[in-house]
Amino acid sequence: SLLKMDKEMMKMSLEEFEKLLVLFNEKYRKQSSVLSRRNFDSYSDEEIHAELSYSIALVGSALLGTVYDQSFAGFVKGAYRMTTGYIGVREGLNILKTRKIWSHPRVKEHYEALLKFFLGLFEIVIACMPAKLSQILNFIGFSGRFEKGIDYLESAFTIKNTFGSIASGVILGFIYLFLEYFYGLGRSKLDMMRKIEADFSAMFPDIAPTAAVRASICYLQADFDKSIVICDEILAVQHPKYIQYIFSWIKSWCYAYQYKWRDAALAMHSLLECKWSPAMFYYIYASFLFMDANGSNEKSYDAELREIFSKIPTLRLKIGGHKVFHDNFFVDRSQNYFTDSNHYFLPAYELFYIWNYFEIVLKLEKNVEKILEDLKSRLATVENDCTRFDEYAQLLFLKAVVLKHINREIEAEALFKEILKNSKKVKKDKFLLAHSAFEIGRIHAKNRRYLEAKSWIMKSKKNYSGYLTECLLDFRVERMLHQIKTEESESESFVKDQNAENSN
After folding, report:
1. String of b and e for 185-199 (b: at least 16 CB within 10 Å)?
2. Kindly report the CA angle at 52 between 109 and 140, in degrees rounded to 5?
3. Other CB atoms closer than 10 Å to residue 33's CB: what's the count?
4. I need a surface site. Which of 109, 140, 146, 153 has the fewest CB within 10 A?
């Protein structure tokens, strides 16, 4: 029901959840007292699984209910049920640690894989929620740690021939194709994707999820033509809508990375009926049409583009009564089409940055040259126009990002600092300032200058607020600081090991 975003189906699913809860409750051993300690070795395997399944059903119904009833009241109601369920799931870790008697090792493996799959999924869902909601959830005890969620899922995936392993493989594939780019730092684990592909090919060689992993690997390696072939093979056969949406998405971006904007728009058009994020799909579709028109001086799209960009503000979604921050970005940027500065508007390149897609598109040298040439030609027309510093800063920022990706880091840092030096001239696109500081921090982190990196990254977080992409950057700041902490720890361990070897 979530994949289809069908309200009637969600209602039916919530009713089925209630039936599940009744069923599991019959097998769920009641405590005689709140203060009594439970001896889980005295529980049967069926009762142990009922404990876990009951808690998972509680959380699942709460999450689905939050999407179904998008009011804040619906969120609060779901949060109460979620809290109860989450406490039960956390208790599952205690059961796994302390329970000594299992009827068979495989029973324990199935339990562990399911538990870790769900814990991983839960951590990631909470981490990716809008900031105000995640703050509320953190207050009532939910951590929402993205890296911890990944660790749980990867651990579950290693417990082969279990439902938890298969489900974790599916979710990890989704994370490395989508979430790591939308919310993270654009660093997919191709080695893990290949392991998932190998497992799925052995078990389910002919199903769509296996093909999706194969297409994703080609896509992430910049083998776009091969990825398109795989997508076309699936799209030529009748599949559920959500399967078609996934392959249409991959196919569309493969065309976009090759500057085949019209083909990219055509592939994206099939997602306009998708309810997952209408504002996003309409914005991407219009952006590809705009890039095609911009490159060919085609005027025939103007009426359609005006209609689409005007419609986008009406398509925003809400979760728990709060707007989704990506939608805020699409609404704001869509209105650039109606300004007299739309000649400098490069929506696809903005998306390449916002979603870390430069990590993919710049793997091809010809793309580097094409993008830099586009930016150079536009910069030449605006750099001496003091009334258009926002447009100039936007183009300069994109150029700096490209230079950073091709290891011309000194030039990139200089451009980021030029934007920051002229911060008072930036009137509207304040997010460029925070992101410039953040990107300087990433350059220092890449070169293991961790003190400077942390200083710049914290500047991006503390010195700027109220800008368009604040929620997104806050999330990436936490990811980046976690990465630096890990690298510092590994570096210290290496030095200690080296000193120990030298002393011996």
Report:
1. ebebbeebbebbbeb
2. 125
3. 6
4. 140
CB-CB contact of 187 with 180 (8 Å): yes
User: Is 219 part of any domain?
Assistant: no
DSSP state string for 170-187: HHHHHIIIIIHHHTS-S-
- Quote the number of domains for the chain: 1
Q: How many helices (H) and strands (E) does the chain have?
A: 24, 2
58 contacts 82 by C-beta, under 8 angstroms: yes
Q: Which pLDDT score, from 0 to 100, does residue 387 have?
A: 79
Q: Which domain holds residue 349?
A: 7-30+38-203+301-491
CA atoms of 432 and 441, how far apart (whole Å): 14
- Give domain status of residue 186, yes or no: yes
Instruction: Give the pair of three-digit tokens for residue 227.
Output: 């990825």
The per-residue pLDDT of the chain, averaged, comes to 88
The string over 273-294, giving b where at least 16 C-beta atoms fall within 10 Å of a residue's C-beta and e elsewhere, is ebeebbbbbbbbbbbbbbbbbb
CA–CA dist 22, 38 (Å, integer): 22
How far apart CA 265 and CA 280 sit, in angstroms, is: 13
Residue 284 lies in a domain: no
Cβ neighbours of 340 (radius 10 Å): 6
pLDDT tens digits for range 166-195: 999 999 999 999 999 998 999 889 999 999
Handedness of CA 64, 67, 69, 70 (dihedral sign): positive
Q: Compute how many other C-beta atoms are within 10 angstroms of the C-beta atom of residue 376.
A: 11
Q: Quick check: is 470 in a domain?
A: yes
* Structure tokens belonging to residue 238: 């009748």
Least confident of 123-137, 275-289, 481-495: 123-137
pTM of the model: 0.87
